[in-house]
Amino acid sequence: MTLALRYAARSDRGLIRSNNEDSVYAGPRLLAVADGMGGHAAGEVASKIAIAALEPLDEDTPTGDMLDALRRATDEGSAHIRELVSEDPSLEGMGTTLTALLFAGSRLAVCHIGDSRCYLLRDGELAQITHDDTFVQTLVDEGRITAEEAHVHPQRSLILRALNGSEIEPDLSIRETRVGDRYLLCSDGLSDVVTLETMQEALQAPDPQEAADRLIELALRGGGPDNITCIVAEVINDDRGNTASFQPVVDGAAGDNIGQRSVSATTAAGRAALAGPQPAADPQGPPVERSPPPRRSVLKPVLVLALVAVVLAGGIYTLWRVSQNQWYVGADGDQVAIFRGM
User: Fold this and answer.
1) d(Cα 35, Cα 132) in Å, to the nearest integer?
2) Strands 125-128, 117-122: parallel, antiparallel or unpaired by DSSP?
3) Residue 273: which of 231, 230, 232, 227 has the closest Cα?
4) Is 232 left (phi over 0), alpha (psi -120 to 50) or beta?
5) How far apart are CA 84 and CA 44, in angstroms?
6) How many Å apart are CA 115 and CA 119, to the nearest integer?
C-alpha cells in the first residue's frame, strides 16, 4: 500500500487586518503554516523566510533523519532572520510561528514553534497534537486556569517562543499515519474564533478543499479579527499514483495571497468577507501633487470683531459729545435755569 497526501490550503487576511502576515505551503511531502509578527511588513518577511527555509524538504522523498532535516531547516530560517535584523535594526522584534509536517508514507515528522496548531482527525475525533508556546498555556499546564478561561484571557496572545533569530529548539516528534487520517494546520486566526466541535464538523467534508474553504468562512463569520490560514490534508491509499500530478500550494504572504477572498457571496460569511477592508491598490502612475487646502485662520474673525467694537465705541462717544453740546431752558424749583446736555 502506497500512502500519499491529498491536501488543500487557504489564507485570508481576515476582516480587521489590512495585510496578511501568514504564509502557508502545502505539497506532497511538506505542510507548513507560519504566522509572522513585527512592525510594518516585518511579520510578512519573517513568515516568508520560514516557509522558504522548509520548502526544499518537499522536493525529494525524505530519507534519513526527518527530525534532523526539520531542525536544520528551522536553524537556517532563524539565521536568515538574524542576519536581516543585524542589517536593519528597525526589524528588531520580527519573528514568526512555525508548524510543519514532513510526510514519508507511514511516518510523519512534526515541527512546532509558537501558537499555530496542528490537529488530527482520526476515527471521527479531533485532537490537538501540538502544544501552544504561550503564557496562558503555561497557566493551564500549572492548573491555575482552565482551557475555557485561557480562551478569553487578556494575555492569550503572548507567545513565549518564536522563530526570531535567536537560538531555539523546536518541538520535534514522529507520528504514525493511517489511511483516513486528516490533519489540520492553522494559525490562531482560525483556532481563536472557531470551536473544536465546529472545526471537527467542518473537517467531515468529503473534499479537503471544501473543508478548507468552510473553515475560512467560519473564521470570517466569527469576526475575522486576525489573519486566517489553514491546511487540510488527508492520508490516502495511492497505489495508482493519482497524486503524482498534485502541485504545491503557496499562499498568504509567501504566495501573493492567491487564496484571498475566494468565498461565496451567497453565504453570510462570504458577504462579511467581501465587506471587509480591501488592500490599497497599487498606483497606476506617478503620484499627483495636490495643493494643500487653504488653512482656516482665526485672525480674520478677530480683526472683524475688533473693528465692530471700535465702530460701536466711536458711535457711542459721538452721541455723548453731541448730547453735551445741547442746551435747553427748564424750571429748577421756583427758578428758571439753563441746562447742558441731554
Assistant:
1) 13
2) antiparallel
3) 227
4) beta
5) 13
6) 12
66: left (phi > 0), else alpha (psi -120 to 50), else beta? alpha
Question: How far, in Å, CA of 200 to CA of 119, rounded?
Answer: 10
d(Cα 302, Cα 88) in Å, to the nearest integer? Answer: 51
Q: What is the tens place of the pLDDT at every residue in 105-145?
A: 899 999 999 999 999 999 999 999 999 999 999 999 999 99
* Domain 3-274, architecture per CATH: 4-Layer Sandwich (3.60)
State the pTM of this model: 0.76
How many Å apart are CA 240 and CA 247, to the nearest integer?
Answer: 17
End-to-end CA distance of the chain: 122
In 306-321, which positions are buried (b, 16+ CB within 10 angstroms) versus exposed (e)?
Answer: eeeeeeeeeeeeeeee
Using one digit for the tens of pLDDT, what is the confidence trace for 35-66?
Answer: 999 866 799 999 999 999 999 999 866 667 99
Q: How confident is the model at residue 336 (pLDDT cuts 50, 70, 90)?
A: very low
